[in-house]
Amino acid sequence: QVQFVESGGGLVQPGGSLRLSCAATGSIFSFAAMGWYRQAPGKQRELVASITLHGSTNYADSVKGRFTISRDNAKTTIYLQMNSLKPEDTAVYYCNTAPSWAAWGQGTLVTVSS
């Protein structure tokens, strides 16, 4: 059974930075592409960044150049470095496989506001 525990969210001013972490349990991490997703109030969940087992990455146009996804396979953890944050980045952020097929974790709330 796979479980994800996201952390690192919080309140940040526009232009600020945050680093999210997602600790994964279960053997799937050793072979799965992983992704960070977000869901803003009243909107559908969307994939913002993904990373393959060997480190190839893809980003949504809305975050390209500002967000960086990485993974530590030994620690079964993925990260999302978020820079130049905008109010429209406000959302609950989740990690999952990419495409998603495992159960969702609780997510971590990111609020960008002055």
Radius of gyration: 13 Å
Low-confidence segments = none
Mean pLDDT: 94
Strand content: over 45%
- Please count the helical segments: 0
Order of helices and strands: EEEEEEEEEE
> How many beta strands in the DSSP annotation?
10
> Largest sheet, if any?
6 strands, mixed
Shape: globular
What structural class do helix, strand and pairing data support?
mainly beta
Question: Termini, distance in Å?
Answer: 40 Å
Fold topology:
Layout: E1 3-7, E2 10-12, E3 18-25, E4 34-39, E5 46-51, E6 57-59, E7 67-72, E8 77-82, E9 91-97, E10 108-112
Parallel strand pairs: 2-10
Antiparallel strand pairs: 1-3, 3-8, 4-5, 4-9, 5-6, 7-8, 9-10
Could you explain how this protein is built, in words?
Strands 2-10-9-4-5-6 form a six-stranded mixed sheet, with no helix packed on it. By secondary structure, the chain is an all-beta fold.
